[in-house]
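#struct-pred

JT: dropping the chains for the assembly here, can someone run the whole complex?
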Amino acid sequence: MRRNRAAAFPIGDHVLRKLGIFVHLDATHLAELDRLLSETMSVDSLHDIVTEGESCKHLFLLTRGWAVRYKLLSDGRRQILGFIIPGDFFGLRATLFDVADDTVQSLTDCTVCRIPGEDFVAVLRDHPRLGMAIVWSIVREYSVLAEHLVSLGRRSALERTAHLLMELLNRLQLVRLAGERDFELPLTQEILADALGLSIVHVNRTLRRLRQQGLIRLDPQSRWIIIDRPDDLAEIADFSPLYLDQGTPPADSLLKAIRSQH
Amino acid sequence: MRRNRAAAFPIGDHVLRKLGIFVHLDATHLAELDRLLSETMSVDSLHDIVTEGESCKHLFLLTRGWAVRYKLLSDGRRQILGFIIPGDFFGLRATLFDVADDTVQSLTDCTVCRIPGEDFVAVLRDHPRLGMAIVWSIVREYSVLAEHLVSLGRRSALERTAHLLMELLNRLQLVRLAGERDFELPLTQEILADALGLSIVHVNRTLRRLRQQGLIRLDPQSRWIIIDRPDDLAEIADFSPLYLDQGTPPADSLLKAIRSQH
DNA sequence: GCCCGGCATTAAACTATGTTAACGATCCGG
DNA sequence: CCGGATCGTTAACATAGTTTAATGCCGGGC
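RK: done, full complex below.
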């Protein structure tokens, strides 16, 4: 299995891919985006980048590695709200409200671009089309969260796990970090458990079932997963990728209206 | 028990209360809001106002009654994402993306204001402060959804139910539809089950436990609930109301920037 | 006044998931 | 090369939650 597919693509490429889904971006936008993303930083694994309850003055873009967004109960139980992969923004709500309502933690070594809140505001003003593309990409998070909620509420452990794997496959493919049916999955079973609302042991059992049914192959050493029968997995999960890329671009009228402000 | 507390307050009053949390609104805004909300309509109970997968060209504001936002699995299982109560907006994401990713259904007779998408865009342009207040109020939905997700993933049936009741108490108080510790709860146990990710039978058992512990009183006939010991209920639920009203107003710089667009 | 449909309630049997505990593999630092 | 830490794996047992089914209450139509 090959690693580091990401290295074959320049930073920013997968971001454009994602943003371009919503809005056509021209050369000016690309240049502006390059400027915006000039301040990159490396983050060690297991480091809190945004902390629940604290203030946060920056918008972030993850360009390498994995992170999670989670909340804790007072007795230490943890629920992971969602995974953040390259091309995902985070920290906007925290910046707007001056307080984060969840914690973002790196799971691996990561690279993030930090965009000062004021700079983002400036982009919204001077390059509304680009700014809006970023906003859409963040608003879309809501759909992912909603589908995750459905999983926790109404899908069995098997269905839920299958659904998460299909979601990750689709999202990673969008930024070219997954092949047709395989990708690197740098998650321990404990992390999966916290995301799926299950115990570690049951995650283990569930993955075993998926393996035994020939649906997936999973090598814990290499942290690589092969989804042998994605269609069957999708059927088990009642997975439909629509919620991920809500194809239609946002009402162009809104863009025009905002651009033409006096 | 008195009913129809709402009737004692003019439409728009609780909305202002909510919007005012974020941004100070002056007389101009109030007048504008009045105009914006001029088109009201009545909706029967159990009517789909926004349908998953369909287009939707309006932003809605619920001013009377209850509604839910839900998604269905292909075998008919239903998960309720959240409750919509007077003062809540819905339909914005659907309008922006030209497609709704969940269904909004009335649970009781409702009154809604329908705001054509273009009008909202115009407000964003001409009264950015008001427009942004509406946007904040919608963004805040994300926090509620996240907390709901934590409930489904990591709270027991008892904790989860307690948490939902506390959330509703707090949200209804904000729009003066709840007293110090009581409110009308026009939900069947089936609806609660679909929201809590539980079976009907287990919801019944759980409510009984809460009743027997002297935490709540619930009369299914009158659909009225009294929360006798809100503090204990909050403790069981690990409930903290912070996520509901994220006190700090949004970065004023953003408002200024948008207002000063040329 | 009667019947019917929707909802709440309960019990009993069942199942999915959690808990505890043990063991094995791999990696890493000394 | 050893010893400890982390993670994955499994089995046996405990429990929370589901399913099925039966009963009762209430309100509405006729």
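JT: nice. Chain A is about 45% helix and 20% strand. Residues 157-174 of chain A form the longest helix (18 residues).
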